[in-house]
Amino acid sequence: MWKLPSNLALLALIACAGPFSFPSLARAADATPGETTAETPSPYAEIDDDYVELIQMFADALDQVDRNYVEKLDRRKLIEAAIRGVITELDPHSTYIPQEELARFRTNIDQQFGGIGIQIDARDGQLIISSPLVGGPAYDAGIGAGDRILEINGQSTKGMNLDAAIEHLKGEPGETVSLVIYHPAEFKTETLELEREMIQLQTVLGDQRLENNDWDYIYDHDQKIAYVRITIFSRNTAEEFAAVLEKLKADGIRGLVLDLRSNPGGLLSAAIEISDRFISDGKIVSVEGRNTPKREWSAVPDTTLIDVPVAVLIDHFSASASEIVSACLQDHDRAVVIGQRSWGKGSVQNIINLEEGKSAMKLTTASYHRPSGKNIHRLPDAKDSDEWGVSPSPDMEVKMTPKQLTTFQQYRRLRDMATLIPHPPAPEPPLSEVDPVLAKGLEYIESKIAEPAQP
C-alpha cells in the first residue's frame, strides 16, 4: 500500500534527490563545464505545514489510483508520469530522464551525430525552428526560422518535448528523416525527406562569396563597411570571429554590421569572448538563481580588437548567446541594436540526479542578466510589457511582413548557395526591398562615418 504518514511520505519523495556530476547539454548559452558552481541546497529546505499537507494530498491521490483504478498499474510508470506532469508545468527546457534513457543521455553529451542542421525550440505547445544552419540539409531544402514541425517520421509532434524531438531528428549520416513542415509566412504545409549529415559548418559568415569560395566580409568596399554573420555560438566561433576581426582591422574598416538574426545561441564562453572583443572593461553578463549564487563575467583589458561604429541586427529568433552579446553591446553604448525584439532565452539548465543516479531531471535553475541587471529570460507567463529579451534601440525597430520575410529568406539563400557564381544574376533588387533590416544597419553606419571626427 502507498498510504503513509505525512512526514514519511514527504521523506520518501525527497530522499532520492541530490547533485548530478556532469553538466547539461549546451543548447542555449548553457554554462560550459566548471562555470556553474552553485552548491545543491538541502532537500529539506523550506518544509512547512502547508508543504507537508500538499505532499500528503499527492501521496493520497497516488494511493487511490493504485488501489482503485480499473486495471492494475505499473507503479514506476505512474510515478514517472507524475514527475513528467510536474515538469511540464515549468518550461520547455526542463525534462525528466528515466532509467532506460539515462545511459544514452550520458553517452550523447560529447558524441557527434548526424542531423539535418536545425535548432529547435518550443512555444505554445509547438516545435518551432529557431534557426536552420547555413549549408545544412534543412537550409538547402528551404526550411526557415519560424517554421513549425508538425510531424517527424509520421509521428505528431503535439505534446512532444524538446529532448524527444531532438532524439527523433538525429541519427546516422546518410539516413533519411521525413518531416511535415508548416511555413506560417506562406500559409503552406509540405512534406520533406531530408538526408542526415554530420553537421560541422562554418559559423562566422559574410554577405557573399568571393570567386575562390571564401566569404567576403566587407559589404561596402568604397565606404569600408564590414558585414559579419554569426549563425551559432559553437566551440570554435570565438576563435573564427577574432581571426575575421583581425583581418578586417588590417583592411582598415570604418564600420561593422554584426548580424545575429535567427542565431539560436550556443556556448556561454563563446558569447563572453566575442563581447570582450568590443569592450575594454565592465560587466558582460551575470547569472542568478533562487538557490544559485550570483556570478559575473567582466571584460578583460587589452582584448578589444575593434573600436569602429557597430550595428547589431537581431530578430524574434535571436536567442540565448546572441542575446547576451547584443545586450552587452547595447548596455555599454558600444552598438546600436536594429530589428525586432529577441526570443528571450536566458536560462541555465542543471542535471539533478534522482534515485542515487539511476534517473535524473534537467531543471532550469538560474537565468542570465544583462550588464544593466535587467532580465533576459522570458518566463512562460511573461507579458510583452515585462522585462525580457533584447529590444531594438530607439527608432531602430524594423518589422517585416510575412511576404517580406519570405522574400528575404529566398534572397539570403541564393547568396549563401552561390559558390560558383559569387552573387545572384544582375540586376539585383534594392536592398531596402529584400533586407530592410540590413539596409537600416548600413544607413546607421554611414551616418556615423559621416559625422565629424571627435577631438
Characteristic terms for this protein:
PDZ_sf, Tail-specific_protease, PDZ, Pdz3 Domain, 24% strand, serine-type peptidase activity, 455 residues, alpha+beta, 2-enoyl-CoA Hydratase, Chain A, domain 1, six-stranded antiparallel beta sheet
Write the layout of secondary structure elements.
Layout: H1 6-14, E1 18-19, H2 49-68, H3 75-88, E2 95-97, H4 99-108, E3 114-115, E4 118-123, E5 126-132, H5 137-140, E6 148-152, E7 155-156, H6 162-169, E8 176-183, E9 188-195, E10 197-198, E11 204-205, E12 208-209, E13 215-216, E14 218-220, E15 225-230, H7 237-250, E16 255-259, H8 268-276, E17 283-289, E18 292-298, E19 310-314, H9 321-331, E20 336-339, E21 347-354, E22 359-369, H10 402-417, H11 431-434, H12 436-450
Parallel strand pairs: 15-16, 16-19, 19-20
Antiparallel strand pairs: 1-21, 2-22, 3-10, 4-5, 5-6, 6-7, 6-8, 8-9, 11-15, 12-13, 14-15, 17-18, 17-22, 21-22
Helix pairs in contact: 1-2, 7-8, 8-9
